[in-house]
Amino acid sequence: MSRNFRKILLSLATPLALIATLAIANPASAAQAIRLQYRTSAPGTTTAQAEPWLQLFNDGTTTIPLNQVKIRYYLTGTETYRFACSWAVISCSTVTGHFVPQSAGAQYLEIGFTAGQLAPGATTRDLQLRFYRADWQSFTQNDDPSYGPQTSYTDWNKIAVYVNGQLAWGDPSGSNPDPDPDPTDPPGPGGVLFDDFTYTNSSDPRLAQRGWTVRGSSGGPGVPGATWSPSAITFPSGLLTLDSSTNGTNSGTVHTELSTANRKFFEGTYGARVRFTDAPTSGPDGEHVVQTFFTITPLRFNLDPDYGELDFEYLPNGGWGEPSNILYTTSWETYQAEPWQAVNAHTEERASFAGWHDLVIQVSGGHIKYYVDGRLFADHSGIYYPETPMWIMFNQWFIDLQAATGTRTYRQQVDWVYHAKNEVVSPAGVLSRVNDLRAEGTAFRDTVPNP
């Protein structure tokens, strides 16, 4: 993301602007009259983080579903910020935040809700929110259109509230008063990727034609000096098959990886049918091997705030301090290699996941939801939500090498992969769509636009 640390001073003091503000602040309808109050717990002109505290009131006569409500806090400048919910009476787990750029060096923080209702006469009570620059530098906030220095709640029309896409309170600022398309709620289908992996071998020209890269380059992750071998990737009976092996030496270790060539995948739904294995197909067991399905953005520099990675990682023999099989789902904000510093959220289960599994990741509304065989496995949000388009990848690699004799080979397989851009599809819906594509004889489809 671009960074421009110069802020544009805005004047909101003219009588004409005040009249317009008062006019716009009237609710969209008498039946659905929403009102916002604001205070701040960080009133300084310059601050390390802004701390807007909000509460919504329903002064109307009908219940308002909170998932129809969007709150917009307007800022000047194009700095990269991170949002967090410190505490909320209605629970921070239902509160989302997303920064949206505007023209002329401005942006806004859009706050939404995933659940809850606001009954007539009711209030949400405290929403204790905060945001800070991704590089943790202090910034000036008193030139932001929505900022106010008051430390006690007061009605505040410099923050706009939309209900079901209609302005219901406040004064929109900047170039985009229309809440659609909504960046936190996907606007609808934006293209589909499906592949049944009906290829002859890793040299099949259709792989490159259809946007796949079979890795042959050196480097991490995993054992230093290992080979990433295209020839160790095969497609028997239409199954992507990754055979990774080691003879106990760095130079005798083979890793495998298949990746999309284009970084064009962001919000929406990802799915794959993956076979994890506990035991090697040949040789003695015991290696710390990682079997994966994930999306990733490259790390440009240490603690790059635009880095993103959403992982399914299965370790059949443990590793990273774990003694036995474990399945991780991990959402990455960023990391630093030397010295190691990880900024991520992870959920894990210590059990065998050998066999075929339907894996689904939903990326929408500030939440990353991981499903295994239709079961919600993890829900991550906040700073771990991705900011940039990603690749889709499958790889199998060794964390380190164990003392064993002979060559041992581990196998991971993938039946199909599916992605629906800008659309939340249930795990059952993913399976239904894949079955429909196969029933109509479709082996490959890619309508996701290139960046």
Summed up, what is this model?
The protein has 451 residues and is mainly beta. It contains 3 helices and 32 strands. The chain folds into 2 domains: 15-169, Immunoglobulin-like (Sandwich); 192-446, Jelly Rolls (Sandwich), CATH 2.60.120.200.
Primary descriptors:
451 residues; ConA-like_dom_sf; hydrolase activity, hydrolyzing O-glycosyl compounds; 32 strands; Jelly Rolls; disordered N terminus; Hydrolase; 2 domains; Immunoglobulin-like; elongated; 17-stranded mixed beta sheet; cellulose binding; 6-stranded antiparallel beta sheet; single chain; 6% helix; signal; mainly beta
Characterise the protein shown here.
The protein is mostly beta strands and 451 residues long. The chain folds into 2 domains: 155 residues, Immunoglobulin-like, CATH 2.60.40; 255 residues, Jelly Rolls (Sandwich), CATH 2.60.120.200. 6% of the residues lie in helices and 42% in strands. The protein contains 3 helices and 32 strands. The strands form 5 sheets. It has a 17-stranded mixed sheet that branches. Strands 1, 3, 4, 7, 11 and 13 form a 6-stranded antiparallel sheet that branches. It has a 5-stranded antiparallel sheet with strand order 8-9-6-14-15, with no helix packed on it. It starts with 14 loop residues before the first helix and ends in a 5-residue tail after the last strand. The relative contact order is 0.15.
